[in-house]
Design a protein that fits this description.
By secondary structure, the protein is of the alpha/beta class. It has three domains: 4-135, no CATH class; 203-403, Alpha-Beta Complex (Spore Coat Polysaccharide Biosynthesis Protein SpsA, Chain A), CATH 3.90.550.10; 420-507, no CATH class. Helices cover 37% and strands 14% of the residues. An eight-stranded mixed beta sheet has the order 9-8-7-10-13-12-14-11, sandwiched between helices. Strands 1-2-5-3-6-4 form a six-stranded mixed beta sheet. Helix 8 links the parallel strand 7 and strand 8 (232-237). The protein is globular, with a radius of gyration of 24 Å. The model has no long low-confidence stretch (mean pLDDT 93).
């Protein structure tokens, strides 16, 4: 493909096809994106929905977003797009093994986003041509894409879902299996050099904690040693009165405003929201109570946000081997990661254990959705909600933390009740007015709520098929018959989980 060249005022070369608005392209070149298009108006919005057979609902960008002028989208129109020349050359352009030019562009955008740390963006009005193309992806094209990008299991699952009784599907499956093989590792776009911090932005750090006061005190000492100081730390502590030391946090002088609020409500989402109300910083850093980090942790969060000109980032979360490990162990783990560490790009997840968000966007969301209290999934929901504001959440390998994960304490203490049945069980917030009785809902109703909240009904159904497919065939061969016989009960558990998820969804997002 021969592309035209546009040179920005900074001297960077942008390659393009079609007729872009060069003023807009100049502006975009100074921001986080690496590839740009206006494909939503050109027939590409939500193209290639069959990706669901591989990713189900575990890819934040499987659906294109509505009512936004700019957002992350990998669905590139090959006839009208622009890309940094350095990125095009690093990723080696379109894959010529695909005969279908549309699939070449979709494959390029998908891999750029998911595997190569490049950021493809939809930008409204960058290309004014709004005539809609017909997207023609044949069964053979589908299987070739799956064969080149995923394990063969996913092609088998697609064959099952598309209709294993159809000769066309079998023919396409065997065609791809015979003529193509899975692609090797994709090249990675190197992170940009971080610029020095501009201005004097103020930082608030939030710590929700429960029965982990010693870990929280250790975290406060890490915060006190930062090269760029936090201005405020807000602790919301749910440790019960009979086991807490109310003077502990005040026993040391810290170089920041320290606010301690003893939580009377229940749940980590409520705790974070109560802390957000008290924050005064221009940025909010969210952290768990059981993390450790190096002295440049806060500084690098702000530097990456300013360098990429984005509103949020998600830091690198490193799991400790045990709760006694320290910053020396963190450094050792980072050295072992080597070059694998340096992946920026659009983050594919979000963690409240290590993230930094401009306060203005936190205020727009109000905070965490308390429908997730008592379960899991609030992190992903918060990240997805930021993205739906039109923001890019970048992955930040420059601000790693060591996640200690002690076996006791923390807000999961309440959530552990969800595994108990009978009279000893304490009701969880997500049970609302219908307590769990003899059937324990699986998957977690709050995880299911997040799926129902952010994905289509058809995608929820595909998730169900994938859930049972993996349950049946990913275990040992000896246990296959046992698992098959348990399917009716597993289906009851799934339906019960979906029942609670839909009830929560009908309530709508709540913050108090």
């Amino acid at each position: 493909m021969k592309l035209n060249e546009f040179v920005t005022t900074a001297g960077e070369v942008i390659l393009y096809n079609g007729q872009p608005d060069f003023d807009q392209l100049e502006t975009l070149s100074k921001e986080a994106g690496d590839i740009w298009h206006s494909s939503f108006e050109q027939g590409y919005k939500n193209a290639f929905p069959e990706l669901v057979y591989q990713t189900a609902v575990f890819f934040m960008f499987i659906n294109d977003f509505d009512n936004l002028d700019k957002c992350v989208s990998w669905r590139i129109n090959p006839n009208q797009f622009a890309v940094r020349k350095s990125v095009w050359e690093t990723l080696k352009g379109f894959d010529a093994e695909y005969k279908n030019i549309q699939l070449q562009a979709l494959d390029f955008g998908y891999n750029a986003l998911r595997n190569s740390a490049a950021i493809p963006l939809y930008s409204k009005g960058l290309f004014e041509e709004n005539s809609k193309e017909e997207i023609k992806i044949s069964a053979k094209d589908r299987y070739v894409f799956f064969r080149k990008n995923f394990k063969i299991d996913h092609s088998v699952f697609m064959l099952y879902r598309e209709g294993f009784w159809k000769w066309k599907e079998w023919n396409a499956f065997f065609y791809a299996k015979k003529n193509f093989k899975k692609s090797g590792a994709k090249p990675i776009i190197k992170p940009r050099e971080l610029m020095e911090i501009e201005g004097n932005p103020t930082i608030s750090y939030i710590i929700p904690t429960m029965m982990r006061q010693d870990f929280t005190l250790q975290l406060l000492k890490d915060l006190a040693a930062q090269t760029y100081p936090v201005s405020q730390v807000v602790i919301v502590d749910a440790t019960p009165k009979d086991v807490r030391d109310e003077k502990l946090y005040n026993s040391i002088d810290f170089p920041f405003e320290l606010i301690v609020k003893w939580q009377e409500t229940k749940g980590s989402c409520r705790a974070r929201n109560e802390a957000i109300d008290l924050c005064t910083g221009e940025y909010i850093v969210f952290g768990d109570d059981d993390v450790r980090f190096q002295s440049n942790f806060i500084e690098n969060h702000i530097r990456i946000l300013q360098t990429y000109k984005v509103g949020a980032c998600n830091g690198l979360d490193i799991r400790a081997d045990n709760q006694e490990q320290d910053l020396t162990d963190l450094q050792d783990k980072l050295q072992k990661l080597g070059d694998k560490r340096w992946f920026v790009g659009a983050s594919h997840g979000f963690s409240n254990a290590n993230s930094c968000v401009k306060t203005e966007y936190v205020r727009k969301l109000i905070g965490n959705d308390i429908n997730f209290d008592g379960g899991y999934g609030e992190d992903s929901d918060f990240g997805m909600s930021i993205i739906k504001l039109g923001q890019i959440v970048v992955h930040n390998p420059f601000s790693p933390n060591l996640h200690l994960k002690p076996p006791v304490g923390g807000y999961r203490f309440w959530g552990n009740q969800s595994k108990i049945l009978g009279k000893k069980r304490k009701a969880q917030p997500w049970e609302l007015d219908t307590p769990v009785k003899s059937i324990r809902p699986v998957p977690s109703p709050t995880v299911m709520y997040g799926i129902v909240k952010h994905f289509t009904a058809q995608q929820v159904l595909e998730y169900k098929y994938k859930h049972f497919f993996l349950y049946l065939f990913k275990g040992s061969k000896k246990g296959l018959l046992y698992r098959f016989l348990r399917i009716p009960y597993k289906n009851l558990q799934f339906k019960k989980s979906l029942f609670y998820a839909k009830k929560l969804n009908n309530l709508g997002a709540r913050h108090k």
